[in-house]
Amino acid sequence: MNKLKLLLALGLPSIFLLTACGNGSTENSEETQEDINYSEEVNYTVTGIEPGAGITETAHNTLDSYDNLAGWELEESSTAGMLAQLDTAIKSEEPIIVTGWIPHHKFIEYDLKMLEDPQGTMGEGEAAHTITRLGLKEDMPSAYELLDAFNWELDDMQEIMYEAQDTDIETAASDWLDDNQDKVDEWTENVDEVNDEEIEIVSMPWEGEQASAAVVEQVLSDSGYEVTVTEVDPAILFESLASSSADATVAPALPVTQGHLYDKHEDEIVDLGPNLEGLQNGFVVPEYMDIDSIEELEPNE
Which of 71, 111, 120, 183 is the most buried (most CB within 10 A)? Predict the structure, then answer.
């Protein structure tokens, strides 16, 4: 018997045996996944963040809108608390559903997916807008022009957010600015420098908003402004702009997340339009959960 025949004689039965064992394992795994009641496993609860966050309101609306989410609860916590619970669940490969948004560094750190939202209650794709108080164009024309020109991409923001996990947001923003001077030049083209004019930027205490505020703060500072960045609740952010107690923001997500606040103050502020496209809110789960849509969840009966 030549070597090829010998190998075939010895190898084929083993291959058939391994194939048979592999198929059985896959089928058992699939059957196990199909048998899991994820709604029951997560105790009919979505893990959320701060009560004042826009995504918290849209999450409540989502639980009220879907008939199959009857009896579900939103566990309001904090961003740090939600991330800690997500990390614990993933390390144990346990089911969990959290309120999530893009951009966020958790999508880089973990293998996650956003559940389909057929009713669109968590919002379609959104954009971060640059908004100023009334009269900023006349009072601070250089700042107004720079803010109006400011725009960037999701990858830009996520790069800063990811680096900031090992340093601070200001250092990460500074590093990004050093590597993207061409974009900065576009924002500052034909913008006259000033001499220590004071300007207050309002933002919100979440990573994406902190990243954009840090970038704008440093670019305005390099143009001669004395910049103060104040982090506040979304409602206070809009109120401060409407009352002219703050000058500008690059943070609000529209039209859904902070849309109700925008509508309330629309006539008292100036909207310069989107500075970042592609924001998305939703219910987020680990990839190992065999579920793809909110509609696959079951009511708490």
Answer: 183
